[in-house]
Inverse folding.
């Protein structure tokens, strides 16, 4: 750990505060219980925050929850859309997280091969 | 197992959020001179009674049966790590008055996990809980650093 890294934290947190204001189209919920953290949920979240910022996606908010009851397939995230649609993605890593930001949050296209379980579909 | 101590800090802070904390103070004190590493997470959440605290420290409850409660295996794992590294884990808690978790270790101990990406831990917490004041105090022999997420928000207006 060094002090320089920590100083960057302030600037970064400041930018992310700006991204958090107002009602959002997408809410990303990261499963951040003990098992999620041990499986890599923090780094998935960090990657998503970085990518969201890099792409200037200001219609997205990122939150956390305790366990999803999906301990075997962590890291897990759920994307909730303003229209009520929900998608769960499982067994994530940084690369997959980037893809989800680019496709689902960036272009509104679900990444079917990473999604799991029943999805509420509007179409 | 948690490979980084900063992941343990996140795990403990998630418990604080689950306990309804409005303010989470994380301190990392790293001294090569004294060969000591101290990690502390203090919150103003709802706290625990003595019986619950005992269970938490012993990891006697499974995460599954207790999903809605402030109990898991996290602290039991951290306690094991502390004791392995010539340190200990102390938890203070009172119902209605919050919880304080202090972990100490010998900095140079060969089994001590790395602190890891502390920045990622704080970022995740800040994003996760915009209304909670997430504070970090980091001290080393070289200097210190303080951070407060609510201070940032106030500066923002």
């Amino acid at each position: 750990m060094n002090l320089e890294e920590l100083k960057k934290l302030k600037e970064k947190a400041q930018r992310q505060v700006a991204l958090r204001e107002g009602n959002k189209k997408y809410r990303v919920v990261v499963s951040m219980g003990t098992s999620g953290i041990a499986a890599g949920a923090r780094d998935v979240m960090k990657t998503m925050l970085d990518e969201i910022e890099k792409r200037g996606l200001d219609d997205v908010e990122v939150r956390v929850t305790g366990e999803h009851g999906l301990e075997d397939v962590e890291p897990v995230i759920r994307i909730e859309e303003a229209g009520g649609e929900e998608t769960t993605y499982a067994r994530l890593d940084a690369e997959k997280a980037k893809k989800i930001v680019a496709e689902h949050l960036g272009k509104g296209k679900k990444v079917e091969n990473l999604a799991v379980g029943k999805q509420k579909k509007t179409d | 197992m948690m490979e980084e101590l900063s992941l343990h800090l996140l795990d403990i802070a998630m418990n604080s959020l689950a306990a309804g904390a409005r303010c989470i103070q994380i301190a990392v004190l790293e001294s090569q001179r004294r060969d000591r590493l101290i990690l502390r997470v203090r919150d103003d959440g709802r706290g625990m009674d003595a019986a619950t605290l005992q269970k938490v420290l012993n990891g006697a409850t499974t995460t599954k049966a207790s999903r809605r409660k402030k109990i898991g295996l996290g602290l039991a794992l951290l306690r094991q790590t502390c004791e392995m590294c010539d340190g200990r884990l102390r938890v203070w808690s009172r119902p209605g008055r919050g919880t304080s978790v202090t972990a100490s270790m010998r900095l140079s101990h060969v089994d001590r996990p790395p602190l890891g990406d502390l920045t990622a831990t704080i970022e995740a917490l800040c994003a996760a809980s915009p209304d909670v004041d997430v504070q970090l105090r980091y001290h080393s022999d070289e200097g210190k650093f303080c951070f407060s997420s609510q201070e940032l928000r106030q500066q923002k207006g």
Summary: The longest helix of chain A spans residues 3-19. The two ends of chain A are 49 Å apart (CA to CA).
